[in-house]
Amino acid sequence: MSTAKKMKFEEAMQQLEEIVTNLERGDVPLEEALDQFQKGVSLSKFCKETLQNAEQTLTKIVDENGKEKLFEENSEKE
Fold it and tell me: In angstroms, what CA-CA distances link 37 with 9, 16, 28, 59?
C-alpha cells in the first residue's frame, strides 16, 4: 500500500484497530468489508515490517572499530 509507506507506525495501527472494530460489528456490507479487509492486510504487513526493521536496528551495536555487531553476539562473550 503506497499510503502506508508514508504514514507512521502509530497511524497505521490506529487505522488497523478501527478496521478490526468495524468488521467485528458485523454490519458492514460485503463489498465494503472485503475492501476493509484488504486494507487491513496491507496495514498489518506494513506494521510487521516496521517492527522487524526496528528490532534489527535495536539489536545492533557499534564496536570500538566502528563496525556493527549484533547485540546478542557481544553479550555472549561476557
Answer: 18, 9, 11, 33
Instruction: Extract the residue ranges of the chain whose pLDDT is less than 70.
Output: 1-5, 62, 72-78
Q: Which residues contact 12 (CB under 8 A, 6 or more apart)?
A: 4, 43, 46, 47, 50
Spatial separation of the C-alpha atoms in residues 32 and 67, rounded to whole Å: 50
Task: Give whole-number Cα distances, 60 to 7, 29, 64, 77, in Å.
Answer: 25, 47, 13, 15
Q: What's this model's pTM, rounded to 2 decimal places?
A: 0.70
Q: Does domain 2-77 match CATH 3.40.50?
A: no
